[in-house]
Amino acid sequence: RLDSVDALRGVAMVWMTLFHFSFDLNHFGYIQQNFYTDPIWTWQRTLIVSLFLFCAGIGQSMAVMQRQSWARFWRRWVQIAGCAGLVTLGSWLMYPQTFIYVGVLHGLALMLIIARLTATWGRWLWALGAVAIASKFIAAHALNMWASGPFAEVMNSPVLNWLGWITQKPNTEDYVPLFPWLGVMWW
Known about the structure:
By secondary structure, the chain is mainly α. The chain has helices spanning 3-27, 39-65, 70-94, 104-118, 124-145, 150-156, 178-186.
């Protein structure tokens, strides 16, 4: 463990708690904010998710350097995947029309496997991270050119929108697809 990484995780946890407390105040009518379009809230969400994924990437790098076993990795991974399932269930009960199926924990579970498998790629991960982040914007541009075609329709459907190469954000309470977020974890 590194104190600096733990401190970053702590900042992310406190920031996320304050963000969600504000979200709950809004949900129950104590404040009036638009968490879906107001840049004050959308940028905070982006920065919080980025901080979590960046720390998770550092954690995987450290685990591989310390020769952490795959058995230990899978024990932790099952906890994250299980919590992702609980998030889906809980959000479906609370928001049946916009339940979470590709949220932070869902994306994290997928990205952790990829990060673990690629952790030894060294400096290449910086370039691959940039490509992963850029791919979201390149794909959106390409799909907009073919917006009326079947390819864009398939990419925007729940079958493939977990990739993040979409033109239209899905109707869900949380959305953390593989791209561009894998790039943040690789960095």
